[in-house]
């Protein structure tokens, strides 16, 4: 049977792997827009802001400030997850957020921004472009909120 520590490590590495491979594939094959169907397309963009292209300005000061804030939040979340782990409390939500954040931070240092490529659209509504790491971050936040509100019952 796999230990709890190995499960956490495996999940962390799986999130990193899926995001890194998907971004590598996107960069290599989807330089122009690729329509899958009327709801989904792939289009590679470089996001220097935060999730869903918010604060995606071209200036270096904003980029550095946002990167520093993301590093700080990821560090605080890692510290929180570490303490949960020491107390034997599961931290799957935090782990998903940390892993997704780490992969996006890697992009920031490697490419000068985060590689986004998944585009969802319904009729005239175009959801901001995102990536696999963003999906895991959202899932992790959802799990954390679920745990927060279910622990009060």
Strand order within the widest sheet?
Answer: 1-2-3-4
Task: Please identify the structural class as seen in this structure.
Answer: alpha+beta
Helix content: 55-70%
Low-confidence stretches: none
C-alpha geometry: globular
String of helices and strands: HEEHHEEH
> Main beta sheet, described?
4 strands, antiparallel
* Oligomer state of the chains in this structure: single chain
Walk me through what this model shows.
The protein has 153 residues and is an alpha+beta fold. The protein has one domain (4-21, 46-150). The chain has helices spanning 4-29, 60-86, 92-111, 132-150; strands at 34-35, 40-47, 114-122, 125-126. The protein has a 4-stranded antiparallel β-sheet with strand order 1-2-3-4. β1 and β2 (40-47) form a beta hairpin. α1 packs parallel to α3, α2 runs antiparallel to α3 and α3 (92-111) packs antiparallel against α4 (132-150). The longest helix is centred in the middle third of the chain and has 27 residues, at 60-86. It is globular and about 45 Å long. The mean pLDDT is 91.
Features:
single chain; 153 residues; alpha+beta; 4-stranded antiparallel β-sheet; 4 strands; globular
Write the layout of secondary structure elements.
Blueprint: H1 4-29, E1 34-35, E2 40-47, H2 60-86, H3 92-111, E3 114-122, E4 125-126, H4 132-150
Antiparallel strand pairs: 1-2, 2-3, 3-4
Helix pairs in contact: 1-3, 2-3, 3-4
